[in-house]
Design a protein that fits this description.
By secondary structure, the protein is α+β, with helices and mostly antiparallel strands. It has three helices and eight strands. Strands 1-2-3-4-5-6-7-8 form an eight-stranded antiparallel beta barrel. The longest helix is centred in the first third of the chain and has 26 residues. It is elongated.
Length: about 210
Amino acid sequence: MKKSLFLLLLLSLVAFNSSAQSDRFKKNPKSGQEQKKEEAKPQAPSQAKKGATPLKDRLIYGGGAGLSFGNNTNIFLAPQVGYKVNDNWVLGAGYMYNYVKWNQIYSGNQIIPVDFENQVHGPNVFSNYSFSKFFVGSQFELLNHDVYIYNLNTLDFDIENKWTPVLFLQGGFKQDIGRKGQMLIGLRLNVLDGGDSPYSTSWAPIFQIFF
């Protein structure tokens, strides 16, 4: 009888231990290596990085150009590249080349035949800020050109080559073109206008297109 009770008690302890071991493995079905692999999975990129605008979508290309022939010849090229800091602010740079040739000039009511030729060129940087359908900004240029100086002794013109700084304050209307382009129409004022300025007047029109 005692042996039977002893065997029964031993079998009960074995069964209890087996049940406990089974429950422990059920609660932790994954090995340590599997858990490490799961923790090492790369995290999804943040929403801010997903929404960042690529560089190619922030760059716009354009500028201005002009061409005229006749008594006076004018060839004007001014390519520029802009970087859209945001939807309203554009920073950029470019280079301007302008060839001019005068066959005649107006002095009072008279037309005077002349033979003047000049090439104006140099780099520029600009900044434009837009709001609604308008924009304001500035553009700095450093231009190389010939300056014609009248010589009273020889009654003729001397030619001197110079680099002249130009600073425009500008503003006008802005029209969006496509997904990122824009067209600018307005006026600019050269606040550094002087006797050696390559521009005939301190005021100048603006007509520029960027894509």
